[in-house]
Design a protein that fits this description.
single chain, five-stranded antiparallel beta sheet, 3 helices, 8 strands, 152 residues, alpha+beta, three-stranded mixed beta sheet
Length: 152
């Protein structure tokens, strides 16, 4: 049986997905931090041309109203809607396809840690060129954590 926190995140994500889609945006993540008596519901949105403060404000207003109607969260909470940031997490095949050519730090289920440039995504594998020049193919299912690395 799923935890109440998981239910909150899954249901909020479902509602946020519909709202974001109507704004030509996508939800790229959602999380709950804190206890059920008080916490923070974070929703991360993105769009083809990035995210503005106006995008976040519109989605936040609409999502807040919808969550109030649903009475999803049993106590007080804070809703935060923001962009995933420059160092966003990569989770899905579409993330690796979208950010081809960008630097990424990856940790696999076998505890391999590598930083390199995304060369592509084919048949379930992420292709990377490491900073040492080595080519790697990592199965997406084996990637525990991946995050863009900001080139300053």
């Amino acid at each position: 049986m799923p935890s109440h926190r998981r239910v909150i995140v899954d249901r909020a994500r479902s509602i946020a997905d519909r709202i974001a889609e109507s704004e030509s945006l996508e939800v790229v993540g959602a999380e709950w931090k804190g206890s059920l008596r008080g916490g923070v519901l974070r929703v991360y949105i993105d769009g083809p041309d990035g995210i503005t403060h106006g995008h976040c404000a519109r989605v936040s207003r609409r999502l807040s109203a919808a969550l109030d109607v649903e009475d999803l969260v049993p106590g007080n909470y804070t809703l935060e809607v923001s962009s995933p940031g420059l160092d966003r997490k990569l989770r899905h095949a579409s993330d690796f396809e979208r950010f081809e050519g960008r630097r990424v730090a990856v940790r696999t289920s076998e505890a391999l840690r590598v930083t390199g440039r995304i060369q592509g995504f084919t048949r379930g594998d992420v292709s990377l060129r490491t900073e040492g020049g080595e080519s790697l193919r990592l199965p997406l299912d084996d990637i525990e954590h991946a995050r863009l690395v900001v080139d300053w």
